[in-house]
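Figure-free illustration: sequence to structure, shown twice.
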Amino acid sequence: MPQTPKANRGPSAGPANRLALIAAAREVFGDGGYAAPLSAVAKRAGVGQGSLYRHFPDRISLAVAVFDENIGDLERVASLPDSTLDDLLQEVIDQALVSKALIDLIVAGADDERVAHLGTRVLAVVDTMVTRERSAGRVRADLTADDVMLAISMLAGVLTWTPGATRPDTAARAWSLLRRSFAPAPAPSPAP
């Protein structure tokens, strides 16, 4: 028995379709990486490919929309007055555990201005957290946001090639090593 096609709801479906596409892309990119087929995104969202391309004319624009939301989550963590660098890094790890697509996107679109703003936003969040942590004495006085960005890149890189089942343990071990390197130096022992 042939299936009846869905009724076209016209322009009123636009906002819901866009949200469905972003949610579907998060899952598809999470499973298959940045190079996952866009047809799988449209199918998972329950829309046609024409709708996908009306909202997102290319792969980068779709991936940027997904990761704009991820970075929004990081910004929310940083906006909490009691949040720490551990809280921020845990959010980064949680995101990296489910998707290596952000790293793939940043590498693939390094020269694309739509991608550049992602790094700028993440750097601003990290800078806020590092400044807070230095003021509280929880990290070395010479730790910079660039140091933490390098650590995040190293951690994300390791997680991209780590098998899925071992990613949480690897992430925890890596962050433990990084945390120790960020810690303030112990006070010198008094002379005997």
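We now fold a second protein in the same way, so the two outputs can be compared directly.
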Amino acid sequence: MPISTWLDLSLFVLVVCAAITDLAIRKIPNLFLLLAWCAVLGLHLVDTASAAAIGNALGGAFVGFALFLPLYVVRGMAAGDVKLMATVGLFLGPAETVQTCILTWCAGGVMALVMILFTRRWSDAYVNLRSLLLPMLRIGPMAQASVMARPSVGSMPYGLAIAVTTLWLLAQRHLT
């Protein structure tokens, strides 16, 4: 079996396991992510073009981390979600990681709207969204103000959004 098939199979297992644990306990275990990093780097080391492949993988990890880190900084998501997206980027490379991040943000937005609809916490959600967006629009000293404590609308299993998007992209890759 080619290396790319092993990588896709490993990515499939990773995102499914991450989504299940995120749904069950609202955490993405670091052990999953560490095993995935070892698998990717190990598979690339047995590949003949390992230097270019490892560089591409690390570039994807950097892109995933960089695009999700701002949401963690403003307390819009958990650190496990950022680490999961960096790990997914390790499998996909930079270009596909950008696409995955954008689609995941869309899927996460839909999930958030559904959660807010079912919990009927519209006013808390408005306060949260406002406190996330206003600091980004301010210029000068007020832009550095710390994020105030705000009422939680509930934790969202963002690992599920990452998994759904990744699985959709993998399906497109193998079914078309």
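Summary for the second example: DSSP finds seven helices and no strands in the chain.
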